[in-house]
Design brief:
The complex is a heterodimer of chains A (about 350) and B (about 525). Helix content of chain A is about 75%, strand content about 0%. Chain A is an all-alpha fold and about 350 residues long. In chain A, the strands form 2 sheets. Chain A has a two-stranded antiparallel sheet. A two-stranded antiparallel ribbon of chain A has the order 3-4. Chain B has 3 domains: about 240 residues, P-loop containing nucleotide triphosphate hydrolases (Rossmann fold), CATH 3.40.50; about 200 residues, P-loop containing nucleotide triphosphate hydrolases (Rossmann fold, 3-Layer(aba) Sandwich); about 70 residues, no CATH class. Classes of the chains: A mainly alpha (about 350), B alpha/beta (about 525).
């Protein structure tokens, strides 16, 4: 009986959308361990008591991608896409660096810089939302506009410079440690949980899924899609702002052309790895979370294994293709057809239907 | 008719989908030069059998013999190669190509310099001429033709590529009477050229008009094959539904007949509501506790009118008053809080949210009305969900199952639950019993009668006139996008009476167009006489 119970838990786990993502993370870590058995080792920095190690680096790297990935999850669930998140990261970086370089090194200035960056990215997210929900543009086109224009906006804000600033409180967000763990990762986890609570404890998640699965039926059920779409794009914009703050904070410089560059693609990948369909509908924030972790692990592994930089994209592509194949219903169907269900199981299924 | 050698012979065909046995040992034969009707209720397996024949679905057991050799087609294209052509209800041609290109697509006449378009169009014209469509200009885009003509072009295409078997899946559902006649003329000429025609339709009259042989399916099982002239209608209907007609007739027959207070204010009164291309200016009153049937043929405007009342489509003109005060309905989100609910005929596209659970589907409308920021607690959800699952007898009674995995009848009950949960004062049900089994049908009819007892106004739309007559207190008859009359229900009102009203109206309209343009109800079908007789 316990064996059977074990199997059911196992089956439940396999059915989770992010199961294969976790498997892939473990496999990549194993690959690293093969190269260097001490890869997973964590040590404590004797000067400040912080954890040091490759795993810690992965968690820190994953944080910005997590932010844009959960924003992207919501947008994709509505049946849309947000290509502008990478550029919005640059805008957030530009706003905060430019502000801090003038405001100086105080806690208040750091707080104001973050607030200002998030307000501006939130407004830009609202622009996306208005274009999609009220003007009726295709989400791909609507957000492509800001993807291209965003870096221009950032350039205007910094006057074409890669602005540098110094502010210890701001830097702490990206580089600090709290009880030995990187602040940036703690913050990312907290935000994922907070967004998860907002979305799942209210009816926002249900309604976003409903309009993503069947917009016509949702309208007939009295759901007003415009406000929901706007909310999703604003949330995506604000989360991209947080990601931008995290990503410029570690170097305290905004590089207009590099900050957040092509990260929208990583975010989309993280969502897909998390098991969501680009056609919209069901979404899983925990799936996107795992997806972002996998992408960070992958980036780190590519570096660590010394894959030549020209082959890096191909390596990444192979891992992701394999993962998507494993998740694909059709591919799994092929495997299933190889081992037909036993007669007893078939009988069981039939009973379920007639019941 | 060649009785000896069937061109298609299917034996013991079984197809299983996850959890459902769609076909169970079905036999089917098709002879050259005959029209063979495949009959059965929705969900009986007609479409599945066609898809098994053309290879769209893989069969789990059984054999398919076409022209004497056993075949398993890999899909519609593969079947077409072997001479089995299918014309679907939604024409599957390319609307932006020309008529000639559509007829000849993939079989263009080739010359020394690639395709010879002149010869191709000539061949297309010849193919069209054989079916009496020689007057069509093959160089015009297909989209300039009506759906009916497009269907005939699709048949021409099948003939141009020398089809031996022609499958017509519900070809008449969007055609008017004259177009149906045109189609039948073409079918007969195709048949006389020795082609075997498989014809699927819900319209009994048409089946009797065109078919030589009938095969009946029920619940995925073979019920028998009959020559049409030897099978009377009652026997056919009984075979299709598996019950005596009398049992069916006795279902839920409790329409209200209490006299009404004439001074009572109507719940809803609409004046001159119209929508271009859908409904001409219509007046309508609906009172509390009343079941109003909308009767009319498909495309008569019965659905379109109902959609205006819910603002599923916005009216271009006219006013709607609720409880005597005018309201501006722009979308369903405006109608729901005013206690109007609308259950669509298009369950899959406008009703269920397939990937959500039964629970989520039921609470969705209530939640939408409250807004996302005020979620229903789990306990409130449970209360609503378990109430309607029990009251409407949803099977399986598992709120956490995805709705797309339920049968059509149970999906319909879940949707009914969704609308009842919004506590409507006016409930509009468009084809709530279509495509569901007799048991679920009776349960839904009972629910309607009970709702009316509780004071809810119900608009009931069904293409089964008997059902409308059985349930309604008053019947609004529509034809050609306009209301042509109202009938107060009574013992002597039958489906035939309604059919007569619809048929007679064409004659009236021809005789007296003035009457129509003013939108008045013709006196010839004045409601009161029936009402007096009913007492």
């Amino acid at each position: 009986m316990t064996a059977a119970a074990g199997t059911t838990i196992w089956r439940e786990l396999i059915r989770k959308p992010f199961f294969w993502g976790i498997v892939a993370i473990i496999a990549l870590l194993a690959l690293n361990v093969i190269k260097d058995p001490t890869y997973l080792a964590l040590s404590i920095n004797p000067n400040n008591g912080n954890l040091v190690g490759n795993l810690v680096d992965i968690l820190r790297q994953a944080a910005p991608v997590m932010m844009i990935a959960i924003g992207m999850s919501l947008v994709i669930a509505t049946g849309g896409i947000d290509l502008s998140v990478g550029s919005l990261m640059a805008v957030a970086g530009a706003v905060s660096m430019e502000f801090l370089s003038a405001a100086g090194d105080s806690f208040g200035a750091a707080l104001a810089a973050v607030g200002l960056a998030l307000v501006i990215t939130g407004v830009l997210g609202a622009v996306n939302g208005v274009l999609v929900a009220y003007v009726g543009l295709q989400p791909f086109i609507a957000t492509l506009v800001l993807m291209l224009a965003g870096r221009g906006i950032a350039k205007v804000i910094t006057g074409g410079q890669n602005t540098t600033a110094s502010n210890d409180s701001f830097r702490w967000i990206a580089n600090g440690f709290l009880i030995g763990i990187p602040v940036v990762f703690l913050l990312a986890v907290l935000i994922v949980i907070a967004v998860g609570l907002v979305v799942r404890r209210s009816a926002l998640g249900l309604m976003i899924e409903a309009i993503g699965i069947n917009p016509r039926a949702s309208r007939m059920a009295g759901i007003k899609p415009k406000g929901l779409l706007l909310t999703a794009y604003i949330m995506s914009g604000i989360l991209a702002g947080i990601a931008g703050v995290m990503s410029v904070g570690s170097v305290m410089t905004v590089d207009i052309s590099r900050t957040g560059y092509q990260l929208e693609l990583d975010a989309i990948l993280a969502v897909v790895i998390g098991g969501a369909s680009l056609a919209g509908g069901k979404f899983s924030l925990s799936g996107a979370f795992v997806g972002a972790l996998l992408i960070a692990t992958l980036d780190k592994t590519v570096l660590y294994l010394g894959v030549s930089s020209s082959a890096t994209p191909a390596f990444k592509a192979i891992v992701i293709v394999v993962l998507c194949l494993l998740q694909s219903e059709r591919v799994r169907g092929w495997f299933r057809r190889r081992r037909r269900p036993r007669p007893a199981e078939r009988l069981l299924q039939k009973e379920e239907v007639s019941a | 008719m060649n009785e000896e050698v069937p061109i298609v012979e299917m034996r013991g065909i079984s197809i299983e989908f996850p959890g459902v046995k769609a076909l169970d040992g079905v036999d089917f034969r098709l002879f050259p030069g005959e029209v063979h009707a495949l009959m059965g209720e929705n969900g009986a397996g007609k479409s599945t059998l066609i898809k098994a024949l053309t290879g769209v679905y893989r069969i789990d057991s059984g054999s398919i013999v076409v022209s004497g050799s056993e075949r398993r087609f890999g899909g519609a294209d593969d079947a077409q190669e072997a001479g089995v052509s299918t014309v679907y209800q939604e024409v599957n041609l390319a609307p932006n190509l020309s008529i000639g290109e559509n007829v000849m697509l993939g079989h263009e006449q080739r010359g020394a310099f690639g395709i010879n378009w002149t010869a191709t169009h000539r061949a297309a014209t010849e193919a069209l001429e054989r079916l009496g469509l020689g007057h069509l200009d093959t160089r015009k885009p297909l989209s300039t033709l009506s759906i009916a003509l497009q269907q005939l072009v699709a048949i021409s295409r099948a003939m141009a590529i020398r089809a031996k078997v022609l499958i017509l899946d519900e070809p008449t559902s969007s055609l008017d009477a004259a177009e149906v006649e045109g189609l039948f003329a073409v079918i007969r000429s195709v048949r006389d050229q020795g082609v075997a025609v498989l014809f699927v339709s819900h319209f009994l009259d048409q089946v009797y008009a065109i078919s030589d042989r009938i095969t009946v399916l029920r619940n995925g099982r073979y019920e028998g094959e009959h020559l049409t002239r030897e099978l009377d209608r009652h026997a056919l209907i009984s075979a299709m539904i598996g019950k005596d007609l009398d049992t069916l007739k006795s279902l839920g027959g409790n329409r209200r007949r209490e006299p009404r207070d004439p001074d009572e204010k109507p719940l809803l009164s609409a004046v001159g509501i119209a929508r271009r291309g859908a409904v001409e200016a219509t007046d309508l009153e609906i009172r509390r506790g009343e079941v109003v049937g909308f009767a009319g043929l498909l495309g008569s405007g019965r659905t379109e009118l109902a959609r205006l009342l819910y603002a599923a489509d916005k009216a271009d003109a006219g006013t709607i008053e609720l409880h005597g005060s005018p309201v501006d309905l722009r979308s369903p989100a405006d109608a729901l809080p005013r206690r109007i609910a609308f259950s669509t005929e298009n369950r899959r596209d406008e009703g269920i949210i397939g990937d959500l659970t039964v629970r989520e589907n039921i609470v969705l409308a209530v939640q939408a009305e409250r807004g996302w920021a005020r979620p229903l607690s789990r306990r409130e959800q449970d209360a609503i969900v378990s109430r309607y699952i029990e009251q409407l007898n949803v099977r399986p009674a598992d709120p956490d199952r995805m709705i797309k995995n339920l049968s059509g009848g149970n999906q319909q009950k879940v949707l009914l639950g969704r609308w009842l949960a919004t506590q409507p004062e006016l409930l509009i049900l468009d084809e709530p019993t279509r495509g569901i089994d007799v048991g679920a049908k009776a349960e839904i009819q009972e629910a309607v009668a009970e709702l009316a007892e509780d004071g809810v106004a119900v608009v009931f739309i069904s293409s089964e006139l008997e059902e409308v007559v059985r349930l309604s207190e008053r019947i609004v008859v529509l034809k050609d996008h306009r209301k042509i009359g109202e009938i107060q229900n009574g013992p002597e009102v039958t489906a035939q009476v309604i059919v007569d009203v619809i048929a007679a109206h064409g004659v009236d309209a021809a005789a007296d167009t003035l009457d129509d343009t003013e939108g008045a109800v013709p006196d010839s079908i004045a409601p009161t006489t029936h009402k007096e007789a009913a007492r």
